Amino acid sequence: MSADDEHKAIAKRYVDVVWNDGDVDAMDDVLTDQQVYHDPTGSGEEPLSEFESFVSNYHETFPDLHFEVERYLREADYVAFWGRITGTHEGPFMGIEPTGESVEIMGIHVVRISDGKIAERWANVDLFGLLQQIGYDPLA
After folding, report:
1. How many Å apart are CA 128 and CA 139, to the nearest integer?
2. Could you give the CA distance from residue 61 to residue 42 in angstroms, rounded to a whole number?
3. Does pTM top 0.90 for this prediction?
4. Out of 3.30.565.10, 3.50.50.60, 3.10.180.10, 3.10.450.50, which CATH number does the structure's domain 3-133 have?
């Protein structure tokens, strides 16, 4: 397998294990014990246990959460990928009680791979669109 294919396979496993399966027990096979995380609100170091809790909360809120990746691109130790994220709002989310509404948003991610695991993550998802789809208008 080429380095390009290996890096893309690691990113795909990350999507499958973390987002599609929500398998916190298998996350230590995919992510380093400590990662650097970046999103539009900031960045910092995040222990795996904290990320596992974050992922568990998302899967409790959206039990059928699914990330359908449209494309993976690799450059050096980085893999970028994007696609549609779907789910049903069945648990509290940011203080909003469950609505049963289906959501579909776009997500863009970049990961840096070190020694076969995800060591750094960037994420940008349409949180505003998600909130609107569950009936909350942040601008109101």
Report:
1. 10
2. 23
3. yes
4. 3.10.450.50
**Euclidean distance between CA atoms 100 and 62, whole angstroms:** 9
| CA nearest neighbour of 19 among 93, 81, 90 | 81
Proportion of the chain above pLDDT 90, given as a percent: 91
Query: Are the C-beta atoms of residues 101 and 88 closer than 8 Å to each other?
Result: yes
Q: What is the CA radius of gyration of the chain?
A: 15
Tokens of 109: 């991610």
d(CA 6, CA 32): 17
Give the DSSP H or E segment for 83.
strand 78-88
